[in-house]
Every structure is written in structure tokens, then in C-alpha cells.
Amino acid sequence: MVSEEMVRAALKNVIDPEIGLDIVNLGLVYRIDVVEEGAKVDIDMTLTTPACPAGPQILDQARREVMALADVYKDLEDVKINLVWTPFWNPSLMSEEARDELGFF
């Protein structure tokens, strides 16, 4: 069965092309729910800005990376990505590693 940790690891493969860091360490992933005994994954995430030109690409890649887990975990049937704007993203949501990488102190 797919776990939240597996989904989070898959999402670390999604790199924001403008910033060069993964969406998990950027703090763009707010919630991951694995429901129906691993058959469905529901993700709340945001973008760094509503006008993010890479937004559609990031959302599509996030869904594809998580759905790729179905190659091993056959019970995974659906991944839903919910784009949310609350709370609005800000640099304090980044991991310490991401802040160090980008020079935020």
C-alpha cells in the first residue's frame, strides 16, 4: 500500500524549473492524504505565486510522479492535486535546506 512518505518522496522528484529546488523542500506541498486503503491520494499544494508560468508543468509532473507509484503498488488508482492559495506561500515555508540553498537566513 502507498504511504504518505512514499508520496512525499515521489514529489521530491518534481523540481520548480524557475528556482531549481523540489516542491517538497520549497514548502509547496501542504497536505497528503492516502485514502481508501491506498487506492487514492489527495494532495493540497500551492505555487510560489498565482502567476507562476511553470504552474501547469509542476502540477502535471506532480501527478505523474505520484501515479508512477502504481507501477509497484497496483492498488493505487487515482491521484488528485488540489491547487490551494491558503495559506499563501512565503519563504518561511521552505525547509532549512532550501533556505540555505537559496541564501535565505
Fold and architecture overview:
This protein is an alpha+beta fold and 105 residues long. It has helices spanning 4-11, 55-67, 96-102, and strands spanning 29-35, 40-45, 78-83. Helix 2 (55-67) links the parallel strand 2 (40-45) and strand 3 (78-83). The longest helix has 13 residues, at 55-67. The protein starts with a helix and ends with a helix. This is MIP18 family-like domain-containing protein. Residues 4-71 form the MIP18 family-like domain.
Structure summary, number of beta strands: 3
Question: What is the beta-strand fraction?
Answer: 15-25%
Listing every helix as H and every strand as E from the N terminus to the C terminus, the arrangement reads HEEHEH
Strand order of the largest sheet: 1-2-3
Global outline: elongated
Organism: Candidatus Chloroploca asiatica
Domain MIP18 family-like: 4-71
Pfam family, one: FeS_assembly_P
Protein name: MIP18 family-like domain-containing protein
Offer a few descriptive terms.
MIP18 family-like domain-containing protein, alpha+beta, Fe-S_Maturation_MIP18, FSCA_dom_sf, MIP18-like, GMP Synthetase, Chain A, domain 3, three-stranded mixed beta sheet
Summarize the structure.
This protein has 105 residues and is of the alpha+beta class. Helices cover 27% and strands 18% of the residues.
Tell me the layout of helices and strands.
Layout: H1 4-11, E1 29-35, E2 40-45, H2 55-67, E3 78-83, H3 96-102
